[in-house]
From TrEMBL:
InterPro entries per the UniProt record, alphabetical: Aldolase_TIM, OMPdecase_AS, OMPdecase_type-2, OMPdeCOase_dom, RibuloseP-bd_barrel
This protein's name: Orotidine 5'-phosphate decarboxylase
Active-site residues (renumbered): 95 (proton donor)
Entry EC no(s): 4.1.1.23
Enzyme class of the recorded protein, top EC level: lyase
Family matches, as HAMAP family: OMPdecase_type2
Lyase recorded as keyword: yes
UniProt gene name: pyrF
Recorded catalytic activity of this chain's protein: orotidine 5'-phosphate + H(+) = UMP + CO2
NCBIfam families in UniProt: pyrF_sub2 (TIGR02127)
Length: 282
């Protein structure tokens, strides 16, 4: 199965648009694990075990592992997810972006070393920096388009004087991703839940692409507005799923030993909230 088929299958199986982000921060770990980076795998594996029947995807953020010298724990975690939740695709949130020869190495890192099903990329350096990832025919390539942070407006909202219609940068990116850039058919876009108006615009320009939407939960994005803006209007579910991601609000729902049970409760509530926002015919 390719990445998009995996998304559709997991969405159906778990009746979910929710992606749980795995951003392990040892200072927030419970009890005896607090401040112990050697517990990153144990913490994340417990979250995975508690939520694996509730999600469309998992999204480990590589910085939290690398900053702690815990790449080996990320490898083990990826293998764990494949073992206990083989039906759930894993998105490696790495936001890579570099010249082609270096991009080839980053692509190997994501898809061969970590066995990720998809990876996030920054498009700032242009198409030749994305292309090496597209050589993996079944892997998802998720390009930053309109990010959730306030500073995302600095560049992404600027108009491009040399492009007909003078679209904003994020609009041009969405249109390119829907057409010329999508050479393996597995391209997707990141759009922040903090900007539902822009989610709707991206959905217009890229009707069939999956949208990874971080920013609900800790960043305050509105789950209901997110689904309404990003919903593909396709009750059959054949194109363009939305993957709504939440990390801290799920991971740190409790600072106690009940952290995994608390994460499950928040994941259940968030999944229900997202599902309730779908149009009735869906
Ligand atoms: O535009 C973007 C792109 C990626 N992220 C990542 O998503 C999570 C958000 O974490 P929360 O705790 O749910 O706020 C994090 O890993 C970011 O690196 C994003 O926030 N915005």
């Amino acid at each position: 199965m390719n990445f998009i088929q995996q998304l559709h299958a997991a969405e159906r199986l778990n009746d979910s648009l929710l992606c749980v982000g795995l951003d392990p921060e040892p200072s927030k770990f419970p009890g005896a694990w607090k401040n112990d980076p050697s517990r990153i795998y144990d913490f994340c594996a417990a979250i995975v075990d508690a939520t694996k029947d509730l999600v469309i995807a998992f999204k480990p953020q590589i910085a939290y592992f690398a900053a702690n010298g815990a790449e080996d724990q990320l490898e083990r975690l990826m293998a764990h997810i494949k073992r206990v939740a083989p039906q759930v695709p894993v998105i490696l949130d790495a936001k890579r972006g570099d010249i082609g020869s270096t991009a080839e190495q980053y692509a190997r890192e994501a898809f061969v070393r970590y066995q990720a099903d998809a990876v996030t990329l920054s498009p700032f350096m242009g198409f030749d920096t994305i292309e090496p990832y597209l050589r993996y025919p079944d892997k998802g390539v998720i390009v930053l388009c309109r990010t959730s942070n306030p500073g995302g407006s600095d560049w992404q909202n600027q108009r491009l004087a040399d492009v007909p219609g003078q679209p904003r940068l994020y609009e041009h990116l969405a249109a390119q991703a829907q057409s010329a850039w999508n050479t393996n058919g597995q391209l997707a876009l990141v759009v922040g839940a903090t900007f539902p108006g822009e989610i709707a615009r991206v959905r217009e320009l890229a009707p069939t692409l999956p949208l990874l939407i971080p920013g609900i939960g800790a960043q305050g994005g509105d789950a209901d507005a997110t689904v309404k803006a990003g919903w593909r209007g396709d009750a059959q579910g054949t194109t363009g799923p939305i993957i709504v991601s939440s990390s801290r609000a799920v991971l740190y729902a409790s600072a106690g030993d009940d952290f995994a049970a608390a994460a499950r409760r928040v994941a259940q509530q968030t999944r229900a909230q997202l599902n309730a926002a779908k149009p009735r015919s869906a």
